[in-house]
Amino acid sequence: MFRVMTMTSALLLGTTAAQADTLTFYTAGPGGLADALAAAFEAETGTKVEVFQGTTGQVMARLEAEESNPQADVVVSASWGSAVDMAARGLLMDYVSANAETVPESLKTENYAAQGISALAMVWNTQSETPRPSEWADLTAPEYNGQITMPDPAQSGAAFDLVVGLESSMGDDAWTLLGDLAENGMIVPGPNAAALNPVLQGAASVVFGAVDYISYAQAAEGETIEVIVPASGTVIAPRPMMILASTDQPEAAKAFVDFVLSEEGQKLVAETYLMPARTDIEGLRPGIDELTVIEVDEDAASARRDEIIARFNEVVVNR
Predict the structure, then answer these.
(1) With left for phi above 0 and alpha for psi between -120 and 50, is residue 22 left, alpha or beta?
(2) CA distance 57 to 146
(3) Residues pairing with 19 in the sheet
(4) FRET pair for 198, CA 20 to 30 Å: which of 15, 104, 176, 249?
(5) Cβ contacts of residue 300 below 8 Å, gap of 6+?
(6) Quick one: which of 291, 300, 278 has its CA closest to 98?
(7) Cβ–Cβ under 8 Å, residues 119 and 238
(8) 298, 163 Cβ separation under 8 angstroms
(9) Per residue in 12-52, pLDDT tens?
(10) Of 116, 105, 106, 56, which Cα lies nearest the Cα of 85?
(11) 3-class DSSP state for residue 239?
(12) How does pLDDT run across 172-222, given as a tens digit for each residue?
């Protein structure tokens, strides 16, 4: 259902562009970025992009429900572990874009590459009556009782990565910290937006483990919040972009991946306050080299996902 076309713009993307009736793109937010990429790609190639945008949990659930009749061509998740798992199951097509040359080696494989990168942070309402925190453990103090929110790791891939990272750097003390936060009244209302909204509205004072790019964008729009990354370390959350092996239009899918990793595509990524995956594209916020990054064994984390979620529910949600 698509015609192969030779186009000057395709040469700039480093691949032969394919005009397809519709390319289907599943992505974990931000929705504005997905729409901007889809519109720019259509203008560049003539290929329409149908977007489904949701949380990582919603995206993965939809892919699972459609496993016998796959609909998506290209997928972006907010959890690197989801790509690790899908690759291990043989669900991804091998493809390395020529435009991924300046993406760090740790953020690309033969099956997927980062679209952009966020980090996990505390987001503090500067108008609250609580003191400004600087470290994760500060939030166990009495001043923050009933004032803390956290995204649900079962619904936020980035929050899951933070739990894994803290366990990796702190061992069992990470679970003690999470338990102490629960004792201090921390609530886990749902995905990232559900955790951030009470802080924006003043009903709570600080998010533990907020996805930072969302909050940088809110602060730029005038919200009275500050993004605080503990000096002791945090995890980054690269957003893997992958082509499903089941796609019936691989050339169009490759062209879309090339576009997202092109200079134009990466500038669109940067405008959302994500860190661009390409190191030669400037971002609007602190980059990886300005953070203390906790390394995470994604293969091991993916294998233990159910165990980690169950323990989090026991220690925090159902305490």
Answers:
(1) beta
(2) 27
(3) 3
(4) 176
(5) none
(6) 278
(7) no
(8) no
(9) 444 434 445 799 999 987 879 999 999 999 999 999 999 99
(10) 56
(11) strand
(12) 999 999 999 999 999 999 988 999 999 999 999 999 999 999 899 999 999
CA nearest to 267, candidates 250, 284, 286, 288: 284
What would the two tokens of residue 23 be? 């390319």
Q: What is the dihedral of CA 269, 272, 273, 277, to 10 degrees?
A: -10
296-318 residue pLDDT tens: 887 788 888 999 999 999 999 99
DSSP calls for 175-212: HHHHHHHHHTT-EEEESHHHHHHHHHHTSSSEEEEEEH
Tens digits of residue pLDDT in 245-302: 999 999 999 999 999 999 999 999 999 999 999 999 999 999 998 999 998 887 788 8
* Whole-angstrom distance, CA of residue 24 vs CA of residue 270: 23
The token duo for 193 is 């937006």
Token pair for residue 55? 């949380």
